[in-house]
TrEMBL record:
It comes from the Bacteria. InterPro entries: Glyco_trans_2-like, Glycosyltransferase_2, Nucleotide-diphossugar_trans. CDD domains: DPM_DPG-synthase_like. The keyword Transferase applies. Keywords: Transferase. This is Glycosyltransferase family 2 protein. It comes from Romboutsia weinsteinii. Residues 6-131 form the Glycosyltransferase 2-like domain. GO terms for molecular function: transferase activity.
């Protein structure tokens, strides 16, 4: 019997990309359910997502913007009812969302407990590498495992891994915190190179503010994890 696979897509103001993101995964035969959680968008994300007609797709809208962690937890409550395998995908992947097939295959082949998408190099210059370096070095320090894609939100999990978490952590440190916990609990992670693309933050004020928040949140998560796992 084939495992039941659910994909959770947290989306905030993604009216330009959400249709393409959904259209390019809904025909993947291994995927049984797609749970879109609109995180209180002020645009037409919910309307456009709902117009993609497929029995696999379930669209929910939160009453206000509550953050990615909250949206993922909301989606998990729905997905955990049936799923053996659960994936997280961002809503802004557009047509490159079909690359999720490269993540599904190794989890079905039991190559690891968690598969993380490793993106190609960014097309435009982003930050100075501080956030990525902090995440990578900290995971290595705490777990002894070297990973390149610790910040990637595109992940596929065996159900048993997610059952270890009472809830997904909130804030920009969610991926790093989860990665540390997963490895410390003895589960395995494999990175897979994909040709996914999504909205990139540049070297403008908005981009630096975003990365500043990321850095702060990751440092906060790391302080907690060092206490937790010492």
């Amino acid at each position: 019997m084939n495992p039941y696979i659910s994909i959770i897509i947290p989306a905030y103001n993604e009216e330009d990309k959400i249709k393409d993101t959904l259209e390019n995964i809904r025909n993947i035969s291994e995927i049984n359910e797609i749970v879109v959680v609109d995180d209180g968008s002020s645009d037409n994300t919910t309307k456009i997502a709902s117009e993609v007609k497929d029995d696999k797709i379930k669209v929910f809208k939160l009453d206000k913007n509550r953050g990615k962690g909250y949206a993922l937890n909301y989606g998990l409550e729905i997905a955990m009812k049936n799923a053996d395998i659960i994936g997280f995908l961002d809503g802004d992947l557009g047509s490159s969302s079909n690359e999720v097939k490269k993540l599904i295959t190794p989890i079905l082949n039991n190559e690891a407990d968690v598969i993380i998408a490793k993106f190609p190099p960014a097309k435009k210059k982003g930050g100075l590498g501080f956030v990525k370096g902090l995440a990578k070095d900290s995971v290595l320090e705490l777990t002894g495992v070297e990973l390149d894609a610790t910040l990637s939100g595109q992940r596929i999990f065996k159900r048993e891994v997610l059952e270890q978490f009472n809830e997904i952590p909130f804030g920009y440190g969610v991926e790093v915190g989860m990665t540390i916990d997963i490895l410390k609990k003895g589960y395995t992670i494999k990175e897979v190179l994909v040709n996914m693309t999504h909205s990139e933050t540049g070297r403008d004020l908005k981009g630096f503010i975003h990365r500043g928040k990321q850095y702060y949140h990751i440092k906060k998560v790391l302080r907690a994890k060092k206490k937790e796992w010492r």
